[in-house]
Amino acid sequence: MGNKSVLSVLIFCWIFSFIPAENITDTSGIGIVVSLFSPGHLSLIAGNPNNMNMSSMSSGKGMLPIQTYYFNTPRAKIVSMASDPRKNALFILDSDSHSIYRMENFNIWVNDSLTIVPIQKGVSKTSAQITYDWLNEMVYWVDGYYNWIGMQPAFTTDNSLYKIIIHQGLGRPEGIAVDPISGYLFYSDMGKPQRIERSSLIGKDRKSIITSGVDRVYDITVDHKEQTLYWVDAGRHTLESADFNGRNRRLLTRMNSVKFTSVVVFGDFLYVTSFTSNTVTKISKRTGEINLIVVVDDGIPVGAEIWDPTNTSPVSKVCSSYGCAHMCVHLPSGPKCVCKEGYTLAENNKACVNENLQKGLIVANSTHVCNMDIRHITALKDEMTCRVANLTGIMFMAIDIASQWLFYVDSDNHALMQYSLIFNVTTPITEAGPNVTGFAYDWLDNNILWSESDILQKGSIRIFSMDKYAHTDLYANLDNPTYVNVNPLDREVYWIEGKGNNYTIKVGTLDGSSAKVIVNSGDLKKPTGLFYHIEKHRLFWINWDSIYSCKTDGSDLTTHLNSISVLFFGVELMVYKDHAIWTHGKSFIMSGSIFRNNAEVKIDTSHYGKITGMAIYDPDLQRYKRGPCEIMNGGCEHVCLPSATAQATCKCDFGFILESDRKNCSSDALRDRFMIIADHTHGRLYQASLLDARITALDFPEVSKPACVLYNRNTKTVYWVEIESQGSQIKQATIDGKNTKTLMEAGSVYPDRIAMDFTTGHIYFTAVASELYESYVGILHPQKSVHKKLITQLGTPRAIAVHPSAGYMFWTDHNKNSPHIGRAFMDGSSQRVLLSKDVVWPNGLAIDYQENRLYWADGHQDKIESIDIYGLNRKEVLKVTNQQLVDIDLFGSYLYYTAWNTQKVFKVLINSDGTGTVVDWMPDVPELGRLDSIEIEPGNSQPKSAACMQNNGGCSTFCLPTPTGRACACEEGVGLMADGETCEVTGGVSCSGDFPNGAWSPTCHQLPTETCTYTCNENFLPNQVNRTVTCGREGEWSIPPKFLCQEKTCPLMYPVHHLLNDCRPTVGSECEYACSDNFTKNANVPKIKCLPSTEWSHNAFDVCKQFDVRVDTMVSKVHCKEDLPNVVLDPDCNRLKDSVCTFSCKEGSQKKDEDIVELICMSNGKWNFGHIPLCVGPSGSQTAKLSQGEGKSDSSYTAIAATLAAVIAVVFIVVLVVVFFYCRRKRTGVVGRYESHQNEANVYCEPQKGIVNIAAEPGNSTENNHYAHMSDI
Length: 1273
Prior knowledge:
It is built from six helices and 101 strands. The protein is mostly beta strands.
């Protein structure tokens, strides 16, 4: 942090600590309300938030008075808010209590008269949102588990006065916003396909306006004056906008790893919250620039709402005199009456007619049938209404919704019965056996189906035609059939069959012609309560103590709720929308979302008796045909959208075009001058034309989460890394998406980046392991699908690049302990750190083969730099801000790069001095997600290795270029034969049973092709990458046993530099040590010991103490020394700074490294390779000794640099200490439920953007504490 930034922090801390409360001048009542979890409360910041910014705060004009309002339960989860300051009302949705509340007499300072009133109960426990129509005074909400949208008058106390206005075609609605002037309702649906839709204020005229580039839209808001829609997408980490038709889409900001949860617009700014970063961020709606970040540390911020009493938007006066019986909505076309749920409009379009039954749950004991509002399963506590009494033996129920018939089994009289819900009449249907075990109704053919068994548990499935009044066996001679279910639309019937520990789930046709098992006994454990879900087209059942489901063909077996503790016999299960409902074999009903692990609601029916039957009443469940998109996705290849005419409308994903049949999607792959882009968010590979940046998608069906992409222009083959939950894969396909093949299954490691040696076609890759220093660099043979590790014990390798003609490979490692750029020969030998200074998060790598320069991008410092391949002549190419650079590639004089916080690929001109200039090429593309990798065709030509060019260099598997030639290698676990070129051929010899430091498992016989597990001795750890080992046919293990059990070691921690006397850091070892530069060894601790916990006996900073360095400088002409050991310099070498000299070795000596042919005299008076022996004699002892002595000397240049670094570090530490003691305020416990405090805040800021950390400190007095009274929380 620079001096300017430190000063800013001190200024802000002083301002917020010392501005007295009486200096508050903003009395407008405007402010921002933030809802927080853990515990549930509101933080209120008084004052116009648009006036809060860096300049106003630093000049003393800004205020940050904070109020805190705690609810009377810490579990409160206020996921969404809306407001009407004209009536002093704040509306909140609390997912914990399943309710929407109205906070009355609310203002930004809150007061004693504030009260909380519930207006809607029974909302699902989701992250659903609410919005407020100020023209009609209506509250709208989305319910992500009921999958519907509801509306309700905002100032009513009648919980039944609501209407579900959209209840079909939604998969997982989450965000919602309203513009009453335009008459539009906007909402997001995170089901398939993800989209943003628009409808009228009463749910009519639905239209999908955003259908691509959508992942998880949590919240939406509108600017009705500018007719602009804003939304936050947590999956894409973006804040975006579009007009009301979905056009003119813009990406305002992307913040990688930050998930935005809410957005609200006020004036020229947007305010977004994030629970992952605990922030409220102020962003310009014009430019997307971040103006202010408020860090909240007294809870988890989830929602935000602007409280603006100066807003005088009018209320509609038309509806007050229109005469609607229930609700009135003023549409742009005029007023419209709406009836509450369970009622329909009368012919005069104003009165409302009772439908007799509304969406609900029908339950029965043995004699009574009652119905309850469906919201009972989400904690509504209204009473049930019992419509039918004095029946007998009710067991199992089904409903014919069209005719209002209730069918049930009379277990007392062994008969099937029907009851008219309209005429209150009961009539018998037919006789039934004494043991009916299942019951269902086919509303298409008007048939009743039931299963029954005899005393020997042999049974049948029977069918009765209500039209012909005849019955027959549909399937006979079954083994204890139970829980029969029918799927009329697909003409199928399902049931459970079996007993004891041998159960199956079967499917049969409704004509009785065939039946088969779809779920085998191995997947079943005392199954009960089979239920067919018509909307999801899935079967659900209780499997012992969990709820399972599968598709109707038995595939996609899924576990839902766990530990539901049911009693097995007589238990019924139903699934409505995304809620499971089951009886407990007792006098209560349980419910819970199928997306959660446990039950959520218990409905007590103890006053009613034991539940013997259940049914769902919802007309949508007895459809006569499926929706246009429910059958084969409407025939659409990509996206199917139901239209107003009930026809399927097909659309294509971004980058594809709809073909002439209006069903299928295609893309024309570019063949030359293109770039391939890996979009990790949307699981796509795209092409961008290098000419005009036009983007088209590659039609690769097996791409899911691409991390890196590579292209072989010779074979027209695309290679990519696929990120999987259980490890990554390296795959390939032709450019047209055909011939997909998996080249490598990485197991527990994750191949991250790949590069190709175009001489051999071999792929080099970095592989990241979960354990530190288990990562490696490897090589893959695409044709043989075999690989080999080349460099091991890396931290967190990322990018990789190869230079075959020079024989070098380069990689980056962004391990936080030692980030660096490494270089080695391409066979893995001669490994060295090429660069580690001022490197934090090195990501992309690219080589300029003509200039022999290496380019890299640092994602933390947002810089692109270059250096020559020998580690010299470092240059800064480009510096950006807030982009988080990821990958780069070169083509001609241009460098292309991508970044996680941007929405496009950038093009940079490399100037003659090595700097870069961004040129206009690709515009922002809002549909793109997180771009992880780019690959350019044709790119810069890669010079080939002469040694490997012909016949793979004579190598049978891998030819690995080096600066002096090539080396041959074999796949992992296979050795070379004596010729050094041919890999050993497998045979049929048993492997050795010897196992140093471990033992084979008892079941391992060391036979050829056998895969064995093993255990390790004490103080040894198993190889995390290779937990199993295979015996080859020639008697060799795939991994030598000596490498399987690794001795526990203690990692060296800075500032300890290395151990002396070849001491190994194994458990029990006591070692002498050396310290890093500017640190001196603690004389009282001559040795450190490696403990069994793999920690050292002493802290690294206790054994290595930092000391001050004094610098004496001398100005003189720089000469490099002439007397290098065993070296003869060229006679023309003047040994001045920057001179380049050739050399030879003295007689009797020879070069140690043949690829070093010249020396450069550096500005510090040293040769660039003077620190290593260049020429070695017969013993090599003199060279080694001289090199050690030379390493101990230091130049004035190095001393100056070390001193400056030490001084800067000391100053930085002192500044941090001063900031800490000025800014840190001790937190005290919360005394009351509500505390009001002004200007008590901790404040700090980043160099470019203001960050305000608010941690309101509760007062010590209880006089002004105010308690919230939230009903039923």
